[in-house]
Design a protein that fits this description.
mainly alpha, 3 helices
Length: about 110
Protein backbone atom coordinates (compact mmCIF):
# COMPACT_ATOMS: atom_id res chain seq x y z
CA UNK A 1 0.00 0.00 0.00
CA UNK A 2 2.78 2.46 0.90
CA UNK A 3 4.78 1.51 -2.20
CA UNK A 4 1.75 2.09 -4.43
CA UNK A 5 1.13 5.50 -2.88
CA UNK A 6 4.79 6.48 -3.25
CA UNK A 7 4.74 5.23 -6.83
CA UNK A 8 1.71 7.33 -7.72
CA UNK A 9 3.20 10.37 -6.01
CA UNK A 10 6.34 9.99 -8.15
CA UNK A 11 4.32 9.47 -11.33
CA UNK A 12 2.13 12.50 -10.69
CA UNK A 13 5.10 14.66 -9.66
CA UNK A 14 6.92 13.62 -12.84
CA UNK A 15 3.92 14.58 -14.94
CA UNK A 16 3.69 17.93 -13.15
CA UNK A 17 7.39 18.63 -13.72
CA UNK A 18 6.90 17.79 -17.41
CA UNK A 19 4.05 20.29 -17.64
CA UNK A 20 6.15 22.94 -15.90
CA UNK A 21 8.91 22.34 -18.46
CA UNK A 22 6.42 22.72 -21.31
CA UNK A 23 5.24 26.02 -19.86
CA UNK A 24 8.89 27.11 -19.61
CA UNK A 25 9.34 26.54 -23.33
CA UNK A 26 6.59 29.04 -24.07
CA UNK A 27 7.27 31.59 -21.33
CA UNK A 28 11.02 32.19 -21.52
CA UNK A 29 12.31 34.80 -23.97
CA UNK A 30 15.29 33.22 -25.72
CA UNK A 31 16.75 29.91 -26.80
CA UNK A 32 19.14 29.54 -23.87
CA UNK A 33 16.49 30.14 -21.21
CA UNK A 34 14.18 27.68 -22.94
CA UNK A 35 16.98 25.16 -23.26
CA UNK A 36 17.70 25.46 -19.55
CA UNK A 37 14.05 24.97 -18.63
CA UNK A 38 13.67 21.89 -20.80
CA UNK A 39 17.04 20.38 -19.93
CA UNK A 40 16.45 20.50 -16.18
CA UNK A 41 12.82 19.46 -16.21
CA UNK A 42 13.32 16.73 -18.80
CA UNK A 43 15.83 14.89 -16.62
CA UNK A 44 13.82 15.34 -13.42
CA UNK A 45 10.57 14.37 -15.13
CA UNK A 46 12.11 11.18 -16.52
CA UNK A 47 13.69 10.34 -13.17
CA UNK A 48 10.42 10.67 -11.26
CA UNK A 49 8.34 8.77 -13.81
CA UNK A 50 10.85 5.95 -14.16
CA UNK A 51 11.24 5.71 -10.37
CA UNK A 52 7.46 5.46 -10.03
CA UNK A 53 7.33 2.77 -12.71
CA UNK A 54 10.19 0.92 -11.03
CA UNK A 55 8.25 0.88 -7.77
CA UNK A 56 5.23 -0.51 -9.59
CA UNK A 57 7.34 -3.22 -11.23
CA UNK A 58 8.86 -4.44 -7.95
CA UNK A 59 12.00 -6.55 -7.93
CA UNK A 60 11.88 -7.92 -11.46
CA UNK A 61 13.59 -7.87 -14.82
CA UNK A 62 11.31 -4.98 -15.82
CA UNK A 63 12.62 -2.89 -12.90
CA UNK A 64 16.19 -3.60 -14.00
CA UNK A 65 15.36 -2.49 -17.54
CA UNK A 66 13.73 0.67 -16.20
CA UNK A 67 16.88 1.38 -14.17
CA UNK A 68 19.01 0.97 -17.30
CA UNK A 69 16.75 3.35 -19.23
CA UNK A 70 17.06 5.87 -16.40
CA UNK A 71 20.86 5.56 -16.41
CA UNK A 72 20.94 6.11 -20.17
CA UNK A 73 18.67 9.17 -19.96
CA UNK A 74 20.54 10.55 -16.95
CA UNK A 75 23.80 10.51 -18.92
CA UNK A 76 22.58 11.53 -22.38
CA UNK A 77 19.95 14.21 -21.71
CA UNK A 78 22.27 16.78 -20.07
CA UNK A 79 24.95 16.00 -22.64
CA UNK A 80 22.53 16.64 -25.50
CA UNK A 81 21.35 19.87 -23.89
CA UNK A 82 24.93 21.09 -23.56
CA UNK A 83 25.73 20.11 -27.15
CA UNK A 84 22.72 22.01 -28.48
CA UNK A 85 23.57 25.13 -26.48
CA UNK A 86 27.20 24.93 -27.56
CA UNK A 87 26.22 24.55 -31.23
CA UNK A 88 23.87 27.53 -30.95
CA UNK A 89 26.63 29.66 -29.41
CA UNK A 90 29.13 28.67 -32.11
CA UNK A 91 26.62 29.45 -34.85
CA UNK A 92 26.32 33.01 -33.55
CA UNK A 93 23.07 32.89 -31.58
CA UNK A 94 23.45 35.27 -28.62
CA UNK A 95 21.27 35.57 -25.53
CA UNK A 96 18.75 38.41 -25.48
CA UNK A 97 19.46 41.67 -23.67
CA UNK A 98 18.85 41.59 -19.93
CA UNK A 99 16.73 44.67 -19.16
CA UNK A 100 18.20 45.11 -15.65
CA UNK A 101 21.95 44.70 -16.16
CA UNK A 102 22.23 45.48 -19.87
CA UNK A 103 24.37 42.38 -20.39
CA UNK A 104 24.02 39.97 -23.26
CA UNK A 105 23.61 42.61 -25.92
CA UNK A 106 23.63 41.19 -29.45
Amino acid sequence: MIIDALSWICLLAGGLVGIIGAVGIHRFPDFYSRQHATGITDTLCAMLILFGLGLQAGMSLAAFKIAMIFLFLFLTSPTATHALANAAMHSGLRPKLDSITGEGKS
